Amino acid sequence: MGLLDYFRGQRSKGSAELAKERLQILVAHDRAERSRPLYLPKLQREILEVIRKYVAVDMDAISVNYEQDEDREVLEVNVVLPDAVDQRS
Amino acid sequence: MARIIVITSGKGGVGKTTTAAAFAMGLAQRGHKTAVVDFDVGLRNLDLIMGCERRVVFDFVNVINGEANLNQALIRDKRCDQLFVLPASQTRDKDALTKDGVGQVIDELSKTFDYVVCDSPAGIEHGAMMAMYYADDAIVVTNPEVSSVRDSDRMLGILSSKSRRAEANEAPIEEFLLLTRYVPERVARGEMLSVDDVQEILSLKLIGVIPESQAVLNASNAGNPVILDKHSQAGMAYSDTVDRYLGQERPHRFLTIEKKGLLSRWFKG
After folding, report:
1. Are strands A73-79 and A62-68 parallel, antiparallel or unpaired?
2. Family per UniProt (chain A) (predicted)?
3. Nearest-angstrom CA–CA distance, B155 and B131
4. Is the CB of B193 less than 8 angstroms away from the CB of A19?
5. Where are the alpha helices (DSSP H) in B74-145?
6. Residues A31, B153: C-beta atoms closer than 8 Å
């Protein structure tokens, strides 16, 4: 390794740093996925079924999110209702 | 009661069997009666690494099926009389290892051994699940490389949810990180994840760092656990790892580039 490479190597970002950044994001995502309760998909399906009895919503109009902090758990249910015109009588 | 240790990783080719052989030999050399068990049904290799492949008569599955008793299947190591190998079967039936069958064999080993080292197959299939199910401790073998680190993290999730300890609501499996195939030169050049990087990502207790070493291939060629090569860096690093596992303080070695003397640089190039 030449002297020039030595100085260049110090300054430029090594591939290891890139690997670390990618892994940190990936591992955080994987872990969040793991900590979710197993009933989540079923819950989402059943809530959707109930809503569809009254309102014509799409399958993907509902999202169920689960987040966990140090001392609390948040279950977030988000339903996008269609325009009033589409409502069933 | 024996302590059950699983050597696991998720990813293949990271050094599980090399580690299982070295670790078990290290425990036995320190006077602890140790059994090392190959869970890789259909692809048995521990016997080769341990150098006892020609002495296999009965195997793990034979014992589970009642075709042989445990003492007939255990192979006593010729170099260390405290060490025994239980080889895997070469059967192609993946489900040959039943949960109850494995449990009975582990129980029986527990009565007479101090440590049972379980060499897990790669992946997260049945054999790997059986290898970790009864564990008290897990050594997660990881290379400083993205896919290996990710798979190790996945394995940590499985260890904390699918083990006997998890199902029985007991204290969780104690998990240790063993970083293998480490090349300090590449770390210094920013081409390889450092020990600190991997530890930061996985947040695990570090039990050892094994440098990439030609001694590992030489040892497996000859069927000698690399820990017996006392002059190699890999051998010394495994030796430190066993001491640390047994509660002794050992500084981590071989993490930085060796400074070559001017003379050796001139003559060796």
Report:
1. antiparallel
2. Belongs to the MinE family.
3. 12
4. yes
5. 99-112, 126-133
6. yes
